[in-house]
Design a protein that fits this description.
The complex is a heterodimer of chains A (126) and B (257). Chain A has two helices and seven strands, in the order H-E-H-E-E-E-E-E-E. By secondary structure, chain A is an alpha+beta fold. In chain A, strand 3 and strand 4 form a beta hairpin. In chain A, helix 1 crosses helix 2. The radius of gyration of chain A is 18 Å and the shape is elongated. Chain B has one domain: Rossmann fold (3-Layer(aba) Sandwich). Helix content of chain B is 30%, strand content 19%. Chain B has a seven-stranded parallel beta sheet with strand order 4-3-5-2-6-7-8, with helices on both faces. In chain B, helix 2 packs parallel to helix 3. The longest helix of chain B is centred in the N-terminal third of the chain and has 16 residues. Classes of the chains: A alpha+beta (126), B alpha/beta (257). Strand 7 of chain A pairs antiparallel with strand 1 of chain B. Chain B: It comes from Streptomyces bugieae.
Chain lengths: 126, 257
């Protein structure tokens, strides 16, 4: 189970962004997890809680946004949902010049934190 | 006050950056890294020992590093080839990461090595997510593991530059269906080469060494679809009306726990 390593990487990056900005407590972290990212959301949520202990993220909620895989055929331009296990050859023409439009995401998109700093890098307030 | 901050950072950005640096550092000294992935018991060590021995016989300088949770058994086996070998004990960790690997190479990797083979921890799930700075990622499956292995572990097989089937000497005894296996590989990784090997019968001897040397010398390496990701902004991440579903394999109900 590598979800603990993934969770530690998330905590490390969020901590690295939040503390210099004056965050006193991180409330939530939104994560995109692609269907083909090779990560199990439930295992990641469990690991995340453990990884947050004793950090500025203690008690933070992990909000996982699943991203379905989508593919497009370079030969006939058809788009399809590859599913799981993924079909990455074109279901129309049988072509193999496939482009993956989405599905491999493993990305921290948004963090919500409490802070005391006057000018952190704000995108919006909630 | 609660603030919402758009971070937009890849979770594995640190590992990917370390892997990129490692790849560049190795390239600068003329070494290419080969990352071997498979389930436990599929024959990574036996195949690697054969290829290392062949490299020594041909006078090609190579080195190998093998990772396990415990024991130095694999390093002892690989060292019989006569090439420099090092064991990494991960103390329970199920995969290698680039930074960890870089630390083990420091002060050990022989300057003349043209190839560095990494025998990853026997596991088809976790190691698949971690780039180690390899030029060639090879995924192995033995004939005893079932033709549907690529479908059960699509990330591992989907990201392979090369797929190697091992233990083909017993293929008939276990009714291995090569055609079905190849079709399943093609489904998750269109265009990737599949090679058959048997250490006992000498089948496919040199395939790993030859492919790795070719990749080191700049021969084109297969680009898996899973790495051909779109540069489009994710305004299309939701299923679109014109998208078709892959409709097969849906005859048995399943649920995710």
């Amino acid at each position: 189970m590598h979800e603990m390593s993934i969770a530690l990487a998330v905590v490390d990056q969020v901590d690295g962004a939040a503390r210099p900005a004056g965050a006193t407590a991180v409330r939530s972290v939104r994560l995109q997890v692609g269907e083909l990212a090779g990560v199990v959301p439930d295992a990641l949520t469990f690991s995340f809680q453990l990884a947050c202990a004793g950090t500025v993220l203690e008690g933070a909620e992990l909000d996982i946004e699943p991203v379905p895989a989508r593919a497009r055929c370079g030969a006939c331009a058809r788009t399809w949902l590859p599913g799981m296990p993924p079909r990455l050859t074109c279901p129309g023409c049988g072509g193999t010049d496939t482009e993956l439009l989405s599905g491999r995401e493993l990305q921290i998109v948004r963090v919500c934190w409490h802070d005391t700093a006057p000018h952190p890098p704000i995108s919006q307030e909630c | 006050m609660c603030r919402v901050v758009d971070l937009q950072q890849a979770v594995l950005a640190k590992n990917d950056a370390c892997a990129h640096t490692l790849r560049e550092d190795l390239a600068a000294r003329g070494t290419a890294l080969v990352n071997l992935l498979s389930s436990p018991g599929s024959g990574k060590t036996a195949l690697l020992e054969r290829e290392l021995t062949l490299a020594r016989d041909r006078g090609v300088p190579v080195a190998a590093l093998t990772a396990d949770l415990a024991t130095e058994n694999d390093a002892v086996r690989l060292a019989r080839s006569g090439v420099p070998v090092k064991q990494i004990l991960t103390d329970g960790l199920c995969h290698l990461e680039a930074e960890m690997l870089g630390g083990h190479l420091h002060d050990w990797l022989p300057a003349e090595a043209r190839l560095l083979f990494i025998e990853n921890v026997g596991n088809l799930v976790c190691p698949a997510s971690y780039d180690l700075g390899e030029t060639l990622r090879v995924v192995l499956a033995s004939v005893t593991e079932g033709e549907d292995k690529p479908l059960k572990y699509p990330t591992a097989f989907g990201l392979a530059h090369l797929v190697v089937v091992t233990k083909t000497d017993i293929a008939e005894a276990v009714s291995f269906d090569e055609e079905e296996f190849r079709a399943n590989v093609e489904r998750v990784n269109p265009g990737v080469e599949v090679h058959l090997t048997s250490v006992r019968q000498g089948i496919g001897e040199g395939v790993l060494l030859d492919r790795a040397l070719a990749a080191r010398d700049g021969a084109p390496v297969h680009i898996p679809v899973m790495t051909r990701t779109s540069h489009h902004v994710h305004d299309e991440s939701e299923p679109q009306p014109q998208d078709e579903h892959s409709a097969d394999l849906d005859t048995v109900a399943s649920s995710r726990s």
